[in-house]
Amino acid sequence: MTLSHTVRRAALALVTVAWLAGGAAAQEGPAFKEIMQGLAEDMNHLNAAIFAENFEAIERYASAIAHHPRPSPAERARLMEAVGPRVELFQSIDHSVHGGAGEMAEAAGVGDMDGVLRYHARVMQGCVACHAAFRDELMQPDTPKL
Asked: What are the extents of the domains in the chain?
């Protein structure tokens, strides 16, 4: 059994236990669609802040992207099941986006526009790569594409 298969099975088991126990934890957290919509709004604000060279706003929105809300355990299990055997690629892209956004916030904090732009490119590349690789699997049938 591969590590990614083991991780997916463990996540599904935890969600099942929480659901059977009637745990509210299985319901906590926003839906994936809500998170993506929030990230799109933050990216739009971030882009405007970069154009205006507003380092305070860049730092705020980059940090919001780096630390966006996590989906509920049930939603995370659905996502992991949807990406299937490509879970490691999904997690790698996610890590790159979060890391890039965090680094961008730090660069903005010291007024380093070159750093902001370098990490902005990393975040955008990650977002586009994730959408290209996983959007169809991760969006529920009734969810409009981002």
From this structure: 30-71+79-138
